[in-house]
Amino acid sequence: MALLLVTLSASALISTMVTTRIQMASNARFSAAFRLAVELSDWVRQGGMKVLASGTVDPFDLVDQMGSVPACFGAACHAEAAALFYLHHWRRRLFLKVPNARIVVCEDDISISPASHHWSCDSGDSSFKARVIKIGWPKGGDESQFPPRVVLALD
């Protein structure tokens, strides 16, 4: 009887520990994604994107689609190259902290409810539209379908 009681207690303890570790990892990803979204939002508000506004390309498209990056470590960079360098390393840090992250930057309605967060951007007419960054990652199970977990206004 004592052995059964010890086995059940150990099983419950192990289950609790596994659940706690999974929740801690999820919280760490959310915290990192939120902190990096706030950092990017601050950078945009301080004018970091202005040097990339060329008229032909929306500079916010560069956040979720980065190509080659200029090397700004060894030599001085002009403002546009420095901005691209920052965006590249921002994405790199995001993907290191939040594996398999998906990023979308677009104009969308701002909503407080997390249930209304979706990847598509609302094209309707609304007075509450703002440029937002949406970051999400798979939380186990199906890795092709997951909602954005962080939605934050950029400007």
What are the SSEs and their pairings?
Layout: H1 2-45, H2 61-64, H3 79-97, E1 102-109, E2 129-136, E3 150-153
Antiparallel strand pairs: 1-2, 2-3
Helix pairs in contact: 1-3
Description:
The structure is a single chain. The protein is an alpha+beta fold. The chain has one domain (about 1-155). The protein contains 3 helices and 3 strands, in the order αααβββ. Helix 1 packs antiparallel against helix 3 (about 80-95). The longest helix has about 45 residues, at about 1-45.
Short summary:
With about 160 residues, the protein is of the alpha+beta class.
Task: Please tag this protein with its features.
155 residues; alpha+beta; three-stranded antiparallel β-sheet; 3 helices; 3 strands
Order of helices and strands: HHHEEE
User: What helical percentage do the residues reach?
Assistant: 40-55%
What is the overall pLDDT average?
Answer: 80
Beginning-to-end CA distance, first to last residue? 65 Å
Gross morphology is elongated
User: What is the alpha-carbon Rg in Å?
Assistant: 21 Å
Q: Main sheet: which strands, in order across?
A: 1-2-3
The counted number of beta strands is: 3
Low-confidence runs: none
The secondary-structure class comes to alpha+beta
Total of domains: 1
Q: Determine the strand fraction and express it as a percent band.
A: 5-15%
Main sheet characteristics: 3 strands, antiparallel
Number of helices: 3
